[in-house]
Each structure stands twice: as structure tokens, then as C-alpha cells.
Amino acid sequence: MTRSVLGLFKLRIGFMIMITALVGLVVTPGPALGWERVLTLALAVFVSSASAGAFNQYYERGSDHLMARTRNRAFVTGALPESPGWWVLMAVMLLVAVSTTAWVLNPVSAFFVFLGAFFYAVVYTVWLKRRSWLNIVVGGMAGSFAVLAGGAAVTPQIGPLPLLLAAVLFLWTPPHFWSLAIANQSEYAAAGIPMLPVVVGTPRAAHIVFWSTVALALTALLPVFFGAGWAYLAGASAGGGYFVYKSWRLAKAPSRETAMAAFFASLVQLSLLLLAALIDGLAR
């Protein structure tokens, strides 16, 4: 039961989104925040992300059995019972996260915390996932809002560094997810989900992934011109170069193997970039 509940809230994704919020905080020039404010931001983003993750699984409980990667989720297997109480729990989690952020930090940061959950739960899951190949492009803004929530926690006037890192997160999501979608194209097609490779075919999707990754890697270098230091430059260059190389191999020879290699390279790229941004911000 415990494992089912933990899986429901997508805690690994929530942890990564929490880190992006802390990166947004660290890179933003301004007065240092006390530990209680930093903790508030971290927990609020984590809890709001968990509420959106639970919403995603509960909303899609009737269709998750169509795909191998989702058919073992708790509501599909019956490990967790269906109940209107889940809606109440998700709403309370989001309300507590947003209201606490507004009270301890400021309303602007709270608004971005809300937008992150809203874009994943409603814009992506409800409005776009089964309607448009742009689903993950627009829905991917959820991660960008976490960075902006961190930046706004320092000052509501968002500066260039958090804005650029939010843009990096926005550009990262499509090639990251499209690589996975190429590897699982047949499953998405069978489930009637119009992910990019289902709509345009694997070869074209692989080339789009490559050029999207190039745009991501170049954009990730822009913070260097707005105050980011050598540590950030090293992380962004190494991670971006690695992801570009793996996506180039995907474009040259599209297959499940090269698609999964590009997918894992996207995780490496993001991890290096966030770690480098943290080191760079803390060193200033």
C-alpha cells in the first residue's frame, strides 16, 4: 500500500521540480532568505507537484491500462480504491501549498506554484494530452513555473537568470519526452494519444528531437551573458553537448535503443545543468 501511494504522487518527479525551484532561488540576486522561507518554497513546490501527479493518475485511471508503462498504476490494478475523497485530498494539498507560499513568501511566488500544478494537471492532462501533439510542449511549462516560483521568492521582479532558466526548462521537456515517445510509439498509437512520433512518424520526429536539442543546448548557454559563472558554463556545455550527440545518433538511426539513449541523455543534461547552477549560485 505504501509503495502504491508513493507511486501515485510521482515523488521522483516532484523532487526534481523542487530542485528546479531551489535553483531559481539560488541564481536570483537579492537578499538571502532564512531557512524557514527556503523550506517553505521547497515543500510547497513538492506538495503542489505531488497533487498534480495524483490528479494525472486519477483522471487517467480509465485509460492507463492501454499502455504497458502505465498499466500497473495503483488505480488500474485496484491497489488503491476509487473515491471522491481523492479529489478533496488533491485540492487541499494544492490549497495548502499555494496559501502557505503566499503567506510566508509572497503572492507572486504562490501564483507560480499554482500555475505549475495547473499546467500539468489541467492544461496537459485534461485539455491537450489526447487532443494535440503540442500536449507536452505546452504542458512542459509546469517545470518552468517552478523556476519562476523560486526566483519570485527572492524578489517578485523576475530577473534575466530565472527567466532564462525557465526557458531552458521549457525547451528541455519536448525532446526529453519525445525521445521516450519514439521508444514507445506503438503504445501511444494504440492508446490514441497523439504524441509527436504518432502524428509525424518516427524519422521526422527524431529529426525534430535533434533540432530541439540543439536549440535547448544553445539557450542553456545564454545565462553566461547575464551573470552565470564558469561552473554553470561547464555544466551547461557538457550536458548540452552530450544530449545533442545522443539526439544526433537518434536522428541518424531512429530505433528504440537510440531513443532511450537520448531520453537518458536528457536526464544527464538536466542534472548537470541544475547542479552547475546550484554550485555557481551558492559560490557567488
Q: Topology, pairings included?
A:
Elements: H1 2-8, H2 11-27, H3 35-59, H4 74-77, H5 85-104, H6 107-128, H7 135-139, H8 141-154, H9 160-183, H10 185-191, H11 196-200, H12 202-219, H13 230-252, H14 256-283
Helix pairs in contact: 2-3, 2-8, 2-9, 2-14, 3-5, 3-6, 3-8, 5-6, 6-8, 8-9, 9-12, 9-14, 12-13, 13-14
Structure, explained:
- The structure is a single chain.
- With 284 residues, the chain is mostly helical.
- The chain has 2 domains: 1-157, UbiA prenyltransferase (Tetracycline Repressor, domain 2); 159-284.
- It has helices at residues 2-8, 11-27, 35-59, 74-77, 85-104, 107-128, 135-139, 141-154, 160-183, 185-191, 196-200, 202-219, 230-252, 256-283.
- The longest helix has 28 residues, at 256-283.
CATH architecture heading of the largest domain: Orthogonal Bundle
Give the CATH superfamily of the largest domain: UbiA prenyltransferase
Into which percent range does the helicity of residues fall?
A: over 70%
The low-confidence parts are none
| Helix count from the secondary structure assignment | 14
In the residues, how many domains can be counted? 2
Per the CATH scheme, the topology name of the largest domain is: Tetracycline Repressor, domain 2
Terminal CA distance: 45 Å
User: Helix-strand pattern, N to C?
Assistant: HHHHHHHHHHHHHH
Radius of gyration: 19 Å
β-strand amount:
under 5%
Task: Tell me the name of the CATH class of the largest domain.
Answer: Mainly Alpha
